[in-house]
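User: Last request for today: this protein with phosphoenolpyruvate, please.
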Amino acid sequence: MTCPDQQDNRPPPARALQGIGVSPGIVAATVVVFKRRTVRAGWHHLPPDHIEHEVDRFAGAIKAAGDELLLLREKLADDLADALSIIDSHLLMLKDKMIVERTIGIIRHKNVNAEWALAQALSEIKERFDRIDDSYIRERFTDIKHVADRVFGLLSGREHQPFAGEGQAVILVANDFSPEDTLRMQAGNVHGFLTEKGGVTSHTAIVARALGLPAVVGLEHATSLLTTGDAIILDGGSGQIVLDPAPEEMRRVQEENRCDGLLADELARYIHLSSETADGVAVRLSANIETLAELPAVLHFGSDGIGLFRSELDYFNNRRPPNEEQLVAIYQQLLAAMSPHPVTVRTLDVGGDKFLNRFPGNKAWLDRERNPALGLRSIRFSLYEREIFRSQLRALFRASVHGRLRILLPLVSAPAELRQAKEIVAEVLAELAENGYSVAQGVELGIMVEVPSAVVMADVFAAEVDFFAIGTNDLIQFSLAIDRGNQYVAHLYEPFHPAVLRMIRQTVEAGHACNISVSLCGEMASDPLCVPVLLGMGLDELSMRPAVVPRIRRLLRHCRSDELRQISRQALQCGDSDQVRDMLARQLPALCPKEFYQ
Ligand code: PEP
Ligand code: MG
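Assistant: Here's the final one, the structure of the complex with phosphoenolpyruvate:
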């Protein structure tokens, strides 16, 4: 059968691009595509009496590069320890024999100019790095390249191009940025950056995280796909770029980013009010975060706790997973800062879209998965790499005395996985007791409900855990078989799909039948249009981006629980998502003003 109209009927690809999110935060701004003038290392034969002059010129460029780095280092705040050590490592590279002596040797022996000699030395170093198996060490060649680029620039007399014009907020797009470029972005009005190259463990990514600058890397052809002046929303957590978003969507993100008293007075009132419906039913409104750097925002916007601490990023800064002591220090700060509010720490959720193939180390499973979305990820990874899991659990329990801890296991799909994890938890607790560590009483253990099998088995799981956290980001993807990072199908990703709503309801009912609390921490909880439907299903907690807490609290406090239940009932009766949206458009105006849910 032929389909002559198929071409016309196809939905246009969504205006979304997918890179690797390496530094969390969502920003909306116009793009500046930053194209470096490439310095061509042309070959020039030099007369013998010019050789020493050329060596001096190269030595001068090396010295100037060192001076620039020292100057940048002096300007850095002491608390940017990661960034400081990266600059120090670049300073050391400027003394490296393979770069300096080799380049001088080539100038002298081949009677050539410094640029060509440096390019030669660099390609010899690259050959050596290409032969190294360990992907983390291989990636360090990028640092050598960044340092060499600085020297090339100085040899050609190139000035630093300014990153951004006066005043206007921008997101920078380039083939690559060095860690030092990233540090220079602090001075401009740069709200985030996007590169074609790079990975989670690149030093550029580490500096971006240290500065709290949202960043997405590894998006091939970004400099051709985007043009200076394009409006985009960049999500440094998920790695998603939305091109040309609706103006109200841009405004919403920009408003959310305006911290420190700049919230409209009307909304700011809700920072300090309690989270309850108009008739006094309490619902916890907590925050999703990935780094300690986000704690000030969590406290500023008045969250009732941390509903999801994504613990992955702490594993990507170094060649090896962090050791137990480093983790204890992080979790301790987190718990103490939020006490007496609860903090839900999700154990390592690597795999799938979360960079298993970039995980530090040199393991057999690296780069080998054909279908990572369904592969060795999340709890399965922890049960496979048990020492990494045990070390994280030990750190969590040791830190537990500093606050109110809940431990959350990601992507559990079968009761056997939960039972194995619980056995490991019991062993870790026995070990800690034996070694004399105190552990808080009442640390709760819960699972993410984010695959359909967990929903179907929710009654079994509910009898064996202390709480559920519904992860709708994954649940929607897995139940509808939609990769929302895929531009051809992303428009089918639909939170109001009746199957999704029914699964949420089923999970809440199963949890409540066993008297355990049920939260929801996917993006749906940050969307004020979804929230009335979710609240009406009886969720005990919604966990969202910190900045949206006041907005969701305003909505919560204006609605009565019986009205919300009625909205949910009607949504659950709808046969498709359009009907849900139509119903909401009709019913919500009676509940609260439009701006509360738009
Ligand atoms: C989810 O799947 O909804 C969730 C919160 O987890 P993540 O987005 O980190 O996969
Ligand atoms: Mg998930």
